[in-house]
Amino acid sequence: MYLGLPTFSMRNKRIQFGYIRDRVVKKLQGWKEKFFSQGGKEVLLKAVVQAIPTYAMTCFMIPDSILKEIEAAYLSLFNQALLGKQVWRITQKPQSLVAQVLKARYFPYSSIWEAEALPNASHVWKSILWGRNLVAHGMRWRVGNGSQISVYNSRWIPQPWNFKVCSPRTLPNNTLVADLLDENGRWNAPLISQMFLNFEAKIILALPRPTMGCFLADKQDSYCWHYDAKGLYSVKLAYRLGMELACSVNPSSTDPATGS
User: Fold this and answer.
1) Share of the chain above pLDDT 70, in %
2) pLDDT digits 0-9 by tens, 108-121
3) What are phi and psi of 192, to 5 degrees?
4) Rounded distance between C-alpha atoms, residue 81 and residue 100, angstroms
5) Whether the Cβ atoms of residue 221 and residue 149 lie closer than 8 Å to each other
6) Are the CB atoms for 220 and 144 separated by under 8 Å?
7) With 128 labelled, which of 27, 217, 234, 238 sits at a CA distance of 20 to 30 A?
8) What are 206-242's pLDDT values in tens digits?
9) What angle is formed at CA 106 by the lines to CA 103 and CA 112, rounded to 5 degrees?
10) Which of 135, 165, 136 shows the shortest CA–CA distance to 150?
11) Which helix (H) or strand (E) holds 77?
12) Cβ atoms 131, 215 nearer than 8 A
């Protein structure tokens, strides 16, 4: 152990992360939880116990068996939202040492969104990919110069069904968003109105573009988190999104982490 985290990976993850369960049990025993009502136990769990594994959960996917043992029904989803923070950092700081190491090892010729879990991948990488599954539901492109965004294949339309264009493909499949801009970097309104469904054309034309004294022709396209006004990822919003997704898939489910 170093700084509260395992220093090496074990084949048996239940044993490796068993210390989290032990710390939770010790905390509960110290608070004499058997004297709490059901509501009191829930408050204790959310306010105190859930804070114990948080640090480890930002780095590793904790086995479901451990999470179930500490009776935290939504802890698995919280774990996934925390790991999503690592995905966000990789996309926002690609020059960081961690991002460069992971890219060189797991996705040298693509982005993290196309990366796959190799058979010999580390537990850290598999954990990050699990977090990516949740992040992907809220991540989209923010249009800069449009040179990196495919009109039909990228997620850039600020509507939360899947952020992709749903209008018929009347332009070549390899058309970039940059091709929808005029020479001043503003939207080509006549072209957009002609090539997109009316409701979608209005959405595109409402996306911010340069005004007098502000030119975005050289500003790079970037990723943003759709569910935050500033486009920033947060564990809280990701957790809430995960809850909504779980309920939409299985409305009768009482456990968004397990679907049971």
Assistant:
1) 63
2) 998 898 898 888 88
3) -65, -40
4) 22
5) yes
6) yes
7) 27
8) 998 865 445 555 688 999 999 998 999 998 889 888 8
9) 60
10) 165
11) helix 75-92
12) no
Look at residue 43 and give its three-state secondary structure.
Answer: helix
What contacts 24+ positions apart, CB below 8 Å, involve 158-161? 158/203, 158/207, 158/226, 159/203, 160/226, 160/227
d(CA 68, CA 174): 47
Residue pair 141/155 in contact by the 8 Å Cβ criterion: yes
Q: Which helix (H) or strand (E) holds 13?
A: helix 13-16
Q: Which residue has the tokens 């939409």?
A: 248
Q: Is 194 within 8 Å of 180 (Cβ atoms)? A: no
Alpha carbons within 13 angstroms on the beta-carbon side of residue 244 total: 12
Which amino acid, 107?
Answer: F
Given a contact cutoff of 8 angstroms between Cβ atoms, the answer to whether 170 and 180 are in contact is: no
d(CA 134, CA 93): 19
Structure tokens at 185: 């970097």
Is the CB of residue 83 less than 8 Å from the CB of residue 131? yes
Contact 207, 62 (CB under 8 A): no
Q: Report the C-alpha gap between 118 and 106 in whole angstroms.
A: 8
Which one-letter DSSP state was computed for residue 248? H
